[in-house]
């Protein structure tokens, strides 16, 4: 299988973030063919069309990194039954102007974790509403993890539960095949 570059977008930047741990686990369990680049989102201002004439440097950098990626992996918490504002803002910047929409034709995988039982299901459902409108191809299947014990996944992305590890590993494995299929179309 060819090598593919995957932009990793994590919807939480706080220290000790559970979603950062999950993102590290996905990266660790991924096949060799996937190379991850964590892309920063929290240095961009809120979207404002007045800034379009001279886009801020952080926005230009973000757009370039997403354009350079073969695919995108979004790992995000759920905030009040939706996605965090930092992620929505990044999606909005990347979607404009429409002729340069960076999400168009990109294979996208998503996952998330929460201490709560519904574990990001609704946030991901919102992403599945937003991204196809922008032309993205979403990996079928659902990966939400209830972070049921404090050491379920450690800071290095090591998963301390065999069945959860197997479940997480399935995501990058399926994603590698999915990206490969799209690259050959
Ligand atoms: C503003 C806010 C809203 C939240 N809303 C939800 C929610 O709707 N569903 C949920 O499962 N957890 C919710 N939580 C709890 C988060 O899942 C929990 O704080 C999680 O650890 C955040 O992800 P992180 O550890 O990667 O930062 C919310 C947390 C915050 C700060």
Structure description:
There is one protein chain. With 185 residues, the protein is an alpha/beta fold. It has a single domain (4-183), classed as Rossmann fold (3-Layer(aba) Sandwich), CATH 3.40.50. Helices cover 38% and strands 16% of the residues. The chain contains five helices and six strands, in the order E-H-E-H-E-H-E-H-E-E-H. Strands 1, 2, 3, 4, 5 and 6 form a six-stranded parallel β-sheet that branches. Helix 1 links the parallel strand 1 and strand 2 (34-38). The two termini are 15 Å apart. The mean pLDDT is 96. Flavin mononucleotide (FMN) binds next to helix 1.
Q: Strands, helices and their partners?
A:
Layout: E1 4-10, H1 18-29, E2 34-38, H2 57-68, E3 71-75, H3 85-95, E4 107-114, H4 121-133, E5 137-138, E6 144-146, H5 162-183
Parallel strand pairs: 1-2, 1-3, 3-4, 4-5, 4-6
Helix pairs in contact: 1-5
The chain binds flavin mononucleotide.
Flavin mononucleotide binds at residues 12, 14, 17-19, 77-81, 114-116, 118.
């Amino acid at each position: 299988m060819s090598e593919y570059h995957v932009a990793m977008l994590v919807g939480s930047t706080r220290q000790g973030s559970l979603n950062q741990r999950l993102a590290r686990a996905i990266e660790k369990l991924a096949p060799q063919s996937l190379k991850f680049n964590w892309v920063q989102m929290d240095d961009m201002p809120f979207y404002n069309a007045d800034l379009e004439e001279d886009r801020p440097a952080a926005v230009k950098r973000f757009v370039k990194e997403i354009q350079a990626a073969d695919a995108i992996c979004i790992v995000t918490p759920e905030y009040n039954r939706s996605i965090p504002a930092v992620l929505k803002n990044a999606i909005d910047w990347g979607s404009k102007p429409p002729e340069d929409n960076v999400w168009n034709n990109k294979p996208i995988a998503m996952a998330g974790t929460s201490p709560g039982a519904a574990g990001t299901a609704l946030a991901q459902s919102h992403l599945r509403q937003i991204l196809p409108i922008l032309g993205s191809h979403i990996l079928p299947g659902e990966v939400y993890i209830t972070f049921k014990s404090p050491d379920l996944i450690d800071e290095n992305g090591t998963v301390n539960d065999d069945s959860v590890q197997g479940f997480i590993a399935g995501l990058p494995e399926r994603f590698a095949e999915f990206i490969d299929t799209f690259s050959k179309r």
